[in-house]
Each structure stands twice: as structure tokens, then as C-alpha cells.
Design brief:
CATH architecture of the largest domain: 3-Layer(aba) Sandwich
Oligomer: single chain
CATH topology of the largest domain: Rossmann fold
Structural class: alpha/beta
Shape: rod-shaped
Strand order of the largest sheet: 2-1-3-4-5
Number of domains: 4
Number of helices: 21
CATH class of the largest domain: Alpha Beta
Distance between the termini: 46 Å
Helix content: 55-70%
Number of strands: 10
Length: 481
């Protein structure tokens, strides 16, 4: 549908044209009438207008003055002029301003309809071009934020000419919010499904930026949810600002901070970096004092997650590390495939789900310890494995160290654990390899040697048998969480 505005200082002319045009048949909608150019300007400011049929000579503001002012305001539409005059100067000036046609009064119906058909086609072509440009800009801007620099961005946006950049993400329910953004020349954004929004703000100081977001929060207290990353001064850092904004949004829902409306600003950047190589700060069950009960240990983990608003993607990563450590330390069998575990943790959306997971782990370990009845000799063998798994450890050497018969030791160990010594050792080495793949930047060959394999090929085989994938793929799947 094309929206049409009629402008003429004579009521009978407007009434006559309204009667002449088969609106529904042509796919047209009359959105307003005006009796001079000034009234017409007010209408095109408030409503979307595709075609204007206007007189030229009117009081207060002529049709030519109206078009000139509309172009200054960057309003685009097709205009058809009407006049009872035939002076060439009117025609020439109107056409120079972009008029589609010039019709003499009284208007000939056939000529008017023919001109309208041309106008409708031009409007459709213009909308198609605008839509294509919008989609191109949206894709380019999204690629810039999500993936880094996109070569088309520099031609579609004046990014490289800016001295500061700020990324934001969020959602909205009030469409007037977009009208507010449209008034800001230094804001570029795209929307998805008429509710999600992603964008950047250029050339704002930290103070100006904060004032702008505070004003948005005041103006839209209920239906706008925005999360802004830090202000950066290099265009190459725009992606980093976007990632922090996404993390803030994730945290908002993860920690149940739901309000009617919300605008979070991260200008100090304290959430931006949590380095994975500081794993000694994690409350690993294997590192906690033996004097602590299992319940105390689990509560330490939950306190760790509650102590600071850790970005949810880091929480999910740390959860994997803690589960890996618990499996290794308490000799827990994996109840599902590793891919299923990754998927399960990747889909965690709320801090309460983390609490439920570790309370479930506590019950599982407690039940396992109640059911497990290792004798002292088996415990001593397990201690030897934990101490010497990185070396060429053999059952005979362990038996000699413990001053027992090797055959008797092997039978006792298998009776208690349902595994041979070599099976248990290999499984323990796999768990330690898992930890190193997740916690360190060591190469796979270095990890193979660190867990007691002199042959990296044998390590690869054993790891694939245990996990169903190669060590490299395992690391990639987990770290992508």
C-alpha cells in the first residue's frame, strides 16, 4: 500500500480528486489532507507519506516552498503538481525539485491515473532499494559486531571517522523507542523480529554516553531493555564492547534481575576480562582441605558463584572444570556422553540451575562413598596412581613398594574397583588429560607426556576410545561453551 497526501487550498479540489481516484483498486491509502504547504509539512513529519498531490499556488507556504523544505528535512516521496497556471517557470522549478509530473486544472482523470501508476511503481522501486540497503547495512553491522571488521562497513557507515565507539544490545516493546534513536545521527542499529536490537553509538564522551542512557531509562522505564558495553576509542575494539554488552544481558537474565525495564551501562569494563589461567582461584574439590565435609565443599563452590556477578559464559566454563575435577578426585563414572554434558551445561540459563547441578553432584558423591568399600590396600594403590600417573607406573613396582604379592594385589584391586590396575591407571590419566586440555594452553603432545604417555599416538588412541573424539576436538567443544 502507498500512502497519499492531498494538498490544496480549495476544499472542492481536494473533494474532487478524492472522488476521482479508485483508492483500493490502486492500492492507495489517503493518510491526510492539507490546505497549505505548512500543514503538509506537519503531516509528513508525523506520518509516512509516499505520494503527494499538491497545488502550487497556496497561501502561507506554496507547493514549491513545501517541497523545498521537505527535501531539506530529507523527506522522500513522489510529488504530482496541480495548477491552473501554465507558466513555464512553475513547471521548470517544480521539475528541478524532483516533481514527477505537472497537471493542469481541471484535472483529467486518465492523465491523473496514468501519473499515479508511474508514481506507485517508483515508490515500490524506492522501497525495494531502501529495503535492500537496510538489509545490507544490517548484515554488515552485525558482522562487524559479532565477527570483527567487515569491508562493507566502512562504505556504509562513517566508522573510521569517529573518535569513540560504544556497542549496545537489548530488546524493546515500545516502537517509539526507535523514533528516539532515529533522531540521533551518531547512532546506527538494526532490529530483529521487531523486538531485538543491536547497535553502536559514535563520537560520545563517557559522560555524554552515560547521560544519554540515563535519559533513555527515564523516558522508557518499562518496555526497553538495553545493555551497553564499554566505550572504546579504536574501531578495532568495537567487537570487544559488543561482547561485554552481550555478557551484561546474559547476566541480567541469568541472575534473575528481571525488572519492568532496564538499562545497564558497563563503562568501567570490570566484567570484560576473567582469565582462564587463574584456575587456582576455583574451589576445586581436590584442593579443599580434607577436614571439610562434602557439604562444606559444595557450599564453597556455590559461594564462589554467588560472590560476584561472573559472566554466565564463564560460569558455564568453570562448571565444566569443577565437574571434571570432581570426577577425577572421587573416581566418578561419566553417566552420559561428553557431548551431552557440554550441551546440558551450554543450555544452563539461570544461576539456580547451577545450584541444582552441584547439589545433585553432592548427593551422587555421598551415595558413591556410602556404597564404595575399598580396603586399605586398594586406597594405598589409588594414592600411588595419583602420585605417579605421569611416570611409567606398573603394578609390580607398586606391589614392591607396598611389600605385597603382585598377583594378590591385582586381584584385591580388581575386586574392589571392578577394574584392573592398568584400566584404572589409564582412566585416571584420561581424566588428568581432560583437566589439562581445559585448564592449560599446552599442546596435545605435551599433555600426553604430562600424563604418562611416551607415545602420543597411543595417547590419541586411548583418548578417542574413552571420549569418542580426538583431544583437539574435545578441547574445541568444551572451550566453545
Amino acid at each position: 500500500m502507498c500512502n497519499v497526501l492531498l494538498v490544496d487550498d480549495e476544499y472542492m479540489v481536494i473533494s474532487g480528486i478524492t472522488y476521482l481516484i479508485p483508492w483500493e483498486e490502486l492500492g492507495l491509502t489517503l493518510v491526510g489532507t492539507a490546505y497549505n504547504g505548512e500543514e503538509a509539512l506537519e503531516i509528513i513529519t508525523e506520518k509516512e507519506v509516499d505520494i503527494v498531490i499538491s497545488d502550487i499556488t497556496m497561501p502561507i507556504m506554496t507547493g514549491l516552498e513545501f517541497l523545498s523544505e521537505a527535501r531539506k528535512r530529507e523527506k522522500e516521496f513522489q510529488i504530482i503538481y496541480l495548477s491552473g497556471y501554465q507558466e513555464f517557470e512553475y513547471v521548470k522549478e517544480g521539475m528541478s525539485l524532483g516533481a514527477l509530473n505537472y497537471l493542469l486544472k481541471p484535472v483529467d482523470k486518465r492523465e491523473l491515473l496514468k501519473t499515479l501508476e508511474v508514481a506507485i511503481e517508483k515508490v515500490k522501486e524506492s522501497k525495494d532499494r531502501d529495503r535492500l540497503l537496510y538489509l545490507t547495512k544490517r548484515k554488515s553491522l552485525k558482522n562487524w559486531l559479532v565477527k570483527g571488521e567487515d569491508e562493507k562497513v566502512t562504505t556504509l557507515f562513517p566508522l573510521l571517522e569517529s573518535n569513540s565507539y560504544n556497542a549496545f544490545v537489548g530488546s524493546f516493546k515500545d516502537s517509539k523507542f526507535l523514533e528516539t534513536l532515529d533522531k540521533e545521527e551518531d547512532i546506527h542499529y538494526f532490529t530483529e523480529n521487531n523486538e531485538r536490537i543491536f547497535g553502536i553509538i559514535l563520537n560520545r564522551t563517557k559522560i555524554d554516553l552515560k547521560s544519554f542512557y540515563v535519559e533513555l531509562a527515564r523516558k522508557y522505564p518499562e518496555d526497553v531493555f538495553l545493555f551497553a558495553g564499554p566505550l572504546v576509542n579504536e574501531v578495532s575494539d568495537l567487537k570487544k564492547s559488543y561482547e561485554v554488552a552481550v555478557s551484561l544481558e546474559d547476566s541480567y537474565y541469568f541472575y534473575n534481575l528481571i525488572q519492568k525495564g532496564c538499562i545497564w551501562i558497563e563503562l568501567n569494563n570490570h566484567l570484560e576480562e576473567i582469565y582462564y589461567n587463574t584456575n587456582e582461584e576455583l574451589p576445586l574439590l581436590s584442593k579443599v582441605s580434607q577436614d571439610n565435609t562434602l557439604e562444606d565443599k559444595i557450599n564453597m563452590i556455590l559461594d564462589f558463584f554467588n560472590a560476584t556477578p561472573i559472566p554466565p559464559n564463564h560460569i558455564r566454563y568453570f562448571t565444566l572444570l569443577l565437574l571434571s575435577d570432581a570426577r577425577s578426585y572421587y573416581d566418578i563414572k561419566q553417566p552420559e556422553s561428553y557431548q551431552q554434558e557440554v550441551d546440558r551445561i551450554r543450555n544452563i540459563t539461570n544461576i539456580n540451575e547451577i545450584k541444582t547441578l552441584f547439589k545433585s553432584l553432592e548427593r551422587e558423591i555421598s551415595q558413591l562413598l556410602d556404597e564404595r568399600s575399598y580396603n586399605d590396600l586398594t586406597h594405598r594403590v589409588i594414592d600411588k596412581i595419583r602420585e605417579g600417573y605421569s611416570e611409567d607406573l606398573r603394578l609390580k613396582e607398586v606391589a614392591d613398594d607396598l611389600f605385597v604379592n603382585v598377583m594378590y594385589l591385582g586381584q584385591t584391586f580388581k575386586r574392589d574397583t571392578n577394574q584392573t590396575f592398568s584400566q584404572y591407571l589409564n582412566e585416571y590419566r584420561m581424566k588428568k588429560a581432560e583437566e589439562l586440555l581445559l585448564k592449560s594452553n599446552r599442546s596435545v603432545n605435551e599433555i600426553a607426556q604430562a600424563v604418562g604417555y611416551s607415545s602420543s599416538g597411543y595417547f590419541y588412541k586411548n583418548f578417542r576410545d574413552a571420549y569418542g573424539i580426538t583431544p583437539k576436538d574435545f578441547r574445541g567443544k568444551y572451550l566453545s561453551i
